[in-house]
Amino acid sequence: MIKVTPVNIKTWARLGQRGAFFGIAIPEIAAEKENLKLLTADLAILSGMDRFIKSYPEKYLNVGIAEQNMIGIAAGLAMEGDCVFATTYSSFIAVRSLEHVRQHLSHLQCNVKLVGSSAGVIAAKSGVSHWAIEDIAFMRALPNLTVLSAADSFEAVKMAEYAAGNDKPVYIRLSGGLNSPIVYKEDYDFKAGKLVKLRDGRKIAVIATGLMVSESLKAADILSEQGIECSVFNMHTIKPIDREGLDKIFCKYDMIITVEEHNVLGGMGSAVAEYKAVKYTAPPQVFIGFQDTFTTAGSQRYVWEQAGITDAQIARKIYTEWKEYHD
Amino acid sequence: MNIDTSEENVKRLAEMSKRMRLAGLDMALASGNNGSHLGGSFSSIEILSVLYGEVMKYNVKNPLDPNRDRFIPSKNHCVLAHIPALAEAGYITYEETLEFQKDGGRLTGYPQRQEIGLEYSGGSLGMAVSVGIGIALSAREKKKTSQIYILMGDGELNEGSVWEAFMSAAHYKLDNLTVIIDRNHLSYDDNTEKIMAIENLADKMNSFNWFVSKCDGHSVKDLLEAFSEHEDKKPHIVIADTVKGKGVSFIENRPEWHHHSITKKQYEQAREEVMGGAEQ
Fold it and tell me: Among B76, B120, B138, which would you mutate to test the A interface (most chain A Cβ atoms within 10 Å of its Cβ)?
């Protein structure tokens, strides 16, 4: 069992989602899970795997810079009974090796947990090759795959425990770098497939995923000062989507805002819209995210500003849309 | 590994190959206008008869026996050789092979994993070696006696991920892994050397630190001898020189027969040629 204390939560936040996942959660889980294997494509040090490698050299495999081969090997190990975590950058694991993922995780349903790190644009300065703003769309289109997206380091730890606890293929989207903002300050019960309400408001429901959860919470604070109270939900499970939770939201709210560090085509917002489309009456939806375009490179904040997904921009967009709708 | 290279055994496996070719033709005819992969299946017949008839150990009554040898077809379009081999092994009956490509049937154009000796669902080329490496690593770790056999086409060596896999199999010193290249010299469009040259393959694999055997892929005796060879701490590659569509004159070496339907008349002629085929 992974020990949850206020100090630990702060430490994990400092390590970031990826560091907490591979530096804390996976070594702890491996202590109790005989058949766990950890594979990487030359991203062990950056992912904070030192402790795992020292403790469990026999459970660890670094396949070199060969993402497709990594997924195939992971599938072979899983076919023989292992629970395999395979990781590299989201941009590579969800795109470069997509056909291997489709064949082996989606079709054959091998027990492989795909962990894509640096999702979104934390590698903002590197340029587009290292961004992942399409991975949700690709992974979500694959039958049998569960798609998770962590809001903070603590949730990343919870997702590691969840994924290790079943024998199904899972994609886990880890965003951001070191010093991940804290969304969950104390222990909670992580339920895959269930929307989590983090802030209570009226009439406007903001549904966010990944780093946009904390950004949306800040946006809600800004709007509150302007007299608009939004509810904020964390959609950590993008697939299977929480139909029950969405039904309640569609009934209760006048406007839905989806916010993601991802292309608005095919992402979390699309998933919400697809479900909403079959409802006779449902509120309108505003899609906040990358508007089907790459922006110029720069700092993470700079790129977020280009895409219009900073807290202030989210607040402004909601304010404008709400006024237009309401007046 | 005890492999019987005696004359009687060679004769037995040649007879088995002949039955498999006939069954392959029956399946091809049964698939009607849809067509099937006759060319690349018939180049693989002897490779599969030798593997299923002599080299591999498996238990039909316990298809998931942990110590079974694994056959993973990377060129999963060898179906008209593979399914007849499973019938010879006793996983299914020859009658059941005629379910091939029927609506909702078990036997799809590219076989799908199921407990009739089908270990893998593939079709898209170049992917299975990586899977075989995962299985071989696991077998070694768990001290299983299993040998892993992967059948590849030559055309699929154009795929880049194949070379990632070759590099890693040697790196992990997987001497429980054997890749067989069905070197029939043709991909879908034309001669492999014309489309995208593969040669010198043996040199390439040597330089990748594999243990390389070359043989006539239609000589049962040659294949038996190639499978008897082994070098510790190296993965083994058997480059089997073959003829695409082997055994039927109008199919042999014809790229258009990569995937093609067969008429009743062609079927009769092909059957006659296979029946009269020379003894090995």
Answer: B138
What pLDDT, in 10s, does the model give residues B15-44? 999 999 999 999 999 999 999 999 999 999
> Are the beta carbons of A100 and B139 separated by less than 8 Å?
no
Residue A130 is classified by DSSP as: G
Contact A256, A284 (CB under 8 A): yes
Which residue among A64, A80, A99 places its CB closest to the CB of B138? A80
Instruction: Collect all residues with Cβ–Cβ distance below 8 Å to A118 and sequence separation of at least 6.
Output: A18, A89, A90, A91, A130, A132, A174, A175, A177
pLDDT in tens, A96-142: 999 999 999 999 999 999 999 999 999 888 889 999 999 999 999 99
Residue range A197-326 in CATH 3.40.50.920: yes
CATH classification (class only), A6-175:
alpha beta
Q: pLDDT tens digits, residue range A40-71?
A: 999 999 999 999 999 999 999 999 999 999 99
State the ipTM, two decimals: 0.94
Note the CATH architecture for domain B7-275. 3-Layer(aba) Sandwich (3.40)
Radius of gyration, CA atoms only, chain B: 17
Query: Do the chains contact at A75 and B130, CB–CB below 8 Å?
Result: yes
Neighbour-count burial of A59, counting CB atoms closer than 10 A to its CB (0-12 exposed, 13-18 middle, 19+ buried): buried
Average pLDDT over every residue of B197-219:
98
Is residue A20 less than 8 Å (CB to CB) from chain B?
Answer: no
B164 close contact with A: CB closer than 8 A: yes
For residue B114, the chain A residue with the least C-alpha distance is A108
